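[step 3/7] fold_predict: job queued, chain A
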Amino acid sequence: MFFHQKPEKVKRDNCKCCDILTIETADSYERTMNSDKVKGMRNFVLLATILIAMSGCSTTAWDPYYKELKPTYEKTYKLSSPLIVASQDQRPYVLSGNKTELFYGLTRSLFGIPYSQSGPVSASNDIIEYVSLLIEDESSIFGIKRKSIGIDEDGLSVALDESTRSPVLFIQFYEWKTDTPAVGTGLLHYDLRAKVIDQAGQIVAQEDVKGTNSIINPDPGSGAKRKTGRWYQKAKGDALGKILLNPAIFNAINLLSSEQLETNTPA
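[step 4/7] structure written:
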């Protein structure tokens, strides 16, 4: 690295040309340094602007992807009474303590080295919220109660206890992990087991799904060149849809909802 060394103003007797040369050299140095500072500041501002713009791309103002799926679910689910959506993390690496419930997946360097990625909320709460947003009737006075069950609890017992108040959609996940390379298509691996429990504590429907979904751009015409949250939201919606759009699941929930409405309606 090279450093500017400021020339000293040395007084030389009887040599005005040297004095003038020295003064001019020092003044020239000051002008050069001031110019460098201005250029440096301009470069800093330019870099900051670029970084801000890039951060804006990664957190776009696009609508959440679930809104595009909502019309399908509005036709499928007819909730006329309260429903409890419960979830429990059963991933083996979380149960062992190797990963926390905030763990979402891996990103890989160009050399394939994996790095763990965590989210602001647990994977269980994230799944509950996404499911609730999809099937909830926003115009209805009957809401959905969200219930995240701890990894150390007996999940089915907790779900059965909750079912005494309202029917329960109980989802346990044994795998829920993204794997995103530096170059190429990312993947979402999942292993989900869903149960619908009535108010008598009976499991009236059950569905298990396991697979891998590609994490692809849901907005190919947008020109987006960076992976935004909507990429993951699409993969997540596709995976959960294999449970939620299964006739055994939504028919059981709709039936329980209508029966509960009849029970609670005065004669």
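[step 5/7] annotate
The domain at 63-264 is CATH 3.40.50 (Rossmann fold).
The radius of gyration is 30 Å.
exit 0
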